[in-house]
Write a structure and sequence with these properties.
By secondary structure, the protein is α/β, with parallel strands linked by helices. It is built from 14 helices and 9 strands.
Amino acid sequence: MILTTNYDLLLEKVFPQYDSYIGQDSIKSNLNDFRIMKIHGSVNDPKSIVIDAADYNEFSVRQEYMVAKLLTYFVEYPIIFLGYSVSDDNIKKILNSVKKIMTSPKNVSIPKLENIFFVEWNDKQNPVLDSIPSEKIIDLGNGNGVKVNYIYLDEFKNLFTYISQNSIDVGVLKTVNKTIDNIIKSSSITNLEVDVASINYLKNPQMFLSLLQKPDMMLSLSTLKSANQLASEFPFTPTELAKKTHYSNWQLLYKDIDAISKKYSVDIRGTNNQFHASISGGINRYSKVALNLLLDHHNDESLAKYFVKSKQ
């Protein structure tokens, strides 16, 4: 999440896949990490801009819930201040609240908030390293203060390199979040079974991250409405389908499916279709149509009727 007190649209241009919210608008939306929160308004909505004393007074009265939501982020997540002097009264109030939550009232010294980093840029070349502090004290007013981590830079490249991660498409991550949310809310989640192989697949974070970088592998996630839909339309794991169609194991099942695919020029296991759905490229589910297809195959009946619609 990016929190800003700026009014311009620079961040929207730099991060086009992030959702932008002005003030209290963020409260009405589902919580996600891919957002730009413009707490002092935006040029898109001049009436929302907080700029003078009257605006700040109104902000304090009307934005209490939003400030409470921001407080959660300041307590639970790493926070990096970039290009910011921490002179804003609203931010100071949040930091003061964080201080009260995270420190003991018996502690009379100035506490340090370990999850907060203050980055200061200066074009002064070759500064005396011994004179650069590792901590910064932020004055919160009324004799109160708090320490944060202090980072001094004359250019930002090293910082961005240090905090960079493998590039994963934000749109794909949003899809993952939405799908997981649907599954959690689903009333049929207890009926949703997966194979042991699928569980092991999900335990491999590197494989999962590599798949997230391939949006085409996430096709079924983008079209899946809920776990209810998955359970009703594709109820069988490969092992379950093998048992119901008289195969001793899923390997033999796959052998016949591949033979049928070759005969009718339809890639049943490699694509999402009326017979099969793949989530994240690793969890395979099969439909009742696939069950009927394989039962007819066992009985040596014609399978052409299943592929007339598929080839259209």
